[in-house]
Write a structure and sequence with these properties.
With 294 residues, the protein is an all-alpha fold. It has one domain (6-291). It has helices at residues 6-30, 36-58, 66-92, 97-104, 107-119, 125-148, 153-180, 186-208, 217-244, 247-252, 257-269, 275-291. α2 runs antiparallel to α8, α3 (66-92) packs antiparallel against α7 (153-180) and α3 crosses α8 (186-208). It starts with 5 loop residues before the first helix and ends with a helix.
Length: 294
């Protein structure tokens, strides 16, 4: 694909954060009308259809060998099937969108660890300090959820488990893509990413969900928003950012996602966080900022 104009390139990081944050809100809108993996399977079908038509119409170049197909497909399973599946299941189980965003927003801290191991990027002392500070912030928010909620520790774990799986998926997926397939055509590459994600997600949905959808106006709006804005817009921006920047620098953008999502959730759904949770969020954001390389 041709390079982006310089102004769009400069605005891409902040635009990505804004669009990425709306994914949690879109999930919150649509999940009352469809189970999480059924919702995602429907989303993937639409994305594959649209991107296949675009790739054919523009004669986009497909991967040239089976190794490239495999690497791009693996990133899809990690970034889409694992990450999105975990986020949707966590919100469906009752974890607030803002807290879900905060948990997966710890990706930059884990990426700083993995970048040294997989990509040979040195992790400085200040990044280790940021890692500890970030996890301290997550602990404050999660402990607040346990304290103010009516559920038990087991119920909290039930809600948190898929969010933690999502965190692992987006972290490993970013590192894997940066190492094995940093550059590919976004039109055909999206198809290669989403096809295995659809197969896995639909299979699990068929075994664990009723696969019934209530086609309300709110659900259709949420579905179209997630397809057009998230899967076509934000994911394409993420792929471009991974292509042009270091793994740690790209991942550091995710530190802006939790406060942005929390603000949106407060405006749209009335989700609130206590003073302790707000302090935890600030501590977590400070930790990720400290973990960034300068």
């Amino acid at each position: 694909m041709p390079p982006l104009p310089s102004r769009l390139t400069a605005a891409a990081p902040l635009l990505f954060v804004l669009l990425w944050s709306t994914g949690f809100i879109g999930a919150k809108f649509g999940l009352p009308y469809a189970e999480p993996l059924t919702f995602l399977s429907t989303r993937y079908v639409l994305v594959i259809t649209l991107m296949s038509l675009l790739a054919l119409a523009t004669r986009a170049r497909w991967p040239t060998d089976w190794r490239q197909f495999m690497h791009i497909g693996v990133t899809g399973l990690l970034v889409h099937a694992t990450y999105l599946g975990g986020v949707f299941v966590a919100i469906h189980r009752g974890l607030p969108a803002g807290v879900t965003a905060l948990v997966v927003g710890m990706q930059p801290l884990l990426t700083a660890l993995g970048a040294g191991w997989l990509l040979g990027e040195r992790v400085a002392a200040r990044q280790w300090a940021g890692l500890a500070l970030g996890f301290a912030g997550v602990t404050l928010v999660v402990s607040n959820k346990l304290t103010v909620g009516s559920g038990s520790a087991g119920e909290l774990g039930w809600m948190l488990a898929p969010a933690l799986a999502a965190l692992a998926g987006i972290t490993v997926g970013t590192l894997y893509q940066k190492r094995f397939c940093p550059s590919f055509d976004l039109r055909t590459g999206s198809v290669v990413q989403f096809v295995p994600s659809l197969l896995l997600t639909a299979f699990v949905a068929s075994r664990s969900e009723t696969m019934q959808i209530d086609w309300t106006e709110d659900f259709v709006f949420a579905l179209l928003w997630l397809v057009l804005v998230l899967s076509l817009g934000a994911i394409s921006l993420l792929n471009l950012l991974i292509r042009s920047g270091s793994a740690v620098n790209v991942a550091s953008l995710f530190y802006l996602t939790p406060p942005t999502t929390a603000l949106m959730a407060w405006l749209l759904f009335g989700e609130t966080l206590t003073g302790l949770a707000l302090v935890g969020m600030i501590v977590a954001v400070a930790g990720v900022w400290l973990a960034r390389k300068t």
